[in-house]
Design a protein that fits this description.
Elements: E1 7-10, H1 16-27, E2 31-36, H2 40-52, E3 57-61, H3 67-81, E4 86-89, H4 105-133, E5 137-142, H5 155-175, E6 180-187, H6 196-199, H7 202-209, H8 220-231, E7 242-245, H9 249-252
Parallel strand pairs: 1-2, 1-4, 2-3, 4-5, 5-6, 6-7
């Protein structure tokens, strides 16, 4: 197993991509801190599957827009497992589909507070732990193809993911001397609860599939293996990069 003896914190791991990542990391030997905001049943399901993989899990409820909750996640994880080696920043929201000139401050704050502020300060708390314990570590951000690719009517979302892109690049330089790697994974269109409306609209779904060279939406299980790679010693010399897992969408996308 690639991650035997490691402990990982996976934010947003009660459903979707985060849940699949937590389970896959456990299958590779890592103990998992399972974070959720509003899906306790999903967090319990993740825990059961982590334990079925032979690893330990610990559930923490937190709102990643609140700094106090962020520190609670990290401190509880360290208390439970004695250390943290891997951070996966998965928690995120997609925001409101609206014209730029119609976006309210509350809509903007909701997206940026979770996607960028939450990722920023969770990473900071994790890095502080690594510095205090004088250990290297792995940081993997679940970003989006929209850290690079335009997505009209979702400007706040794109701004948040673009911020995560530049944060990753900057931290790769700043944290490299400490033995800490930082990378992004940029999923394309994935079958998750956040896309339920799309999945139930055959016309829009078919239109999107025509933009994907591989001809299908991705699944959370398509994302998890890349996380395993970046979290393992196989990627010890990989930092400052974005890995697109999108079926070719970002090379072929155009508005219908």
């Amino acid at each position: 197993m690639k991650l035997a003896g490691k402990a990982a914190l996976v934010t947003g791991s009660s459903q979707g991509i985060g849940q699949a990542i937590a389970i896959r990391l456990a299958q590779e030997g890592a103990d998992i801190v399972i974070d959720y905001r509003s899906h306790p049943d999903g967090a319990k399901e993740t825990l059961a599957k982590v334990e079925a993989a032979g690893q330990q899990g610990h559930i923490v409820q937190a709102d990643l827009s609140a700094i106090g909750d962020i520190h609670k996640i990290v401190s509880e994880g360290v208390q439970r497992f004695g250390k943290l080696d891997i951070l996966v920043n998965d928690a995120g929201v997609d925001g409101k589909n609206a014209d730029f000139w119609e976006i309210a401050e509350a809509d903007y704050d909701k997206v940026l507070d979770v996607n960028l502020k939450g990722t920023f300060f969770t990473t900071q708390a994790f890095v502080q732990h690594l510095i205090e314990t004088k250990r290297p570590g792995k940081i993997i951000n679940i970003s989006s193809v929209h850290e690079e690719m335009a997505f009209p009517h979702f400007t706040a979302y794109c701004a948040s993911k673009g911020g995560v892109k530049m944060m990753m690049r900057n931290l790769a330089v700043e944290l490299g001397p400490l033995g800490i790697t930082v990378n992004n994974i940029a999923p394309g269109a994935i079958e998750t609860p956040i896309n339920t409306k799309l999945l139930n609209d055959p016309v829009k779904l078919n239109s999107l599939k025509q933009n994907i060279p591989l001809g299908r939406l991705g699944t959370p299980e398509d994302i998890a293996p890349m996380v395993v790679f970046l979290a393992s010693s196989d990627a010890d010399y990989v930092t400052g990069a974005t890995f697109y897992v999108d079926g070719g969408l970002s090379r072929n996308y155009h508005e219908q």
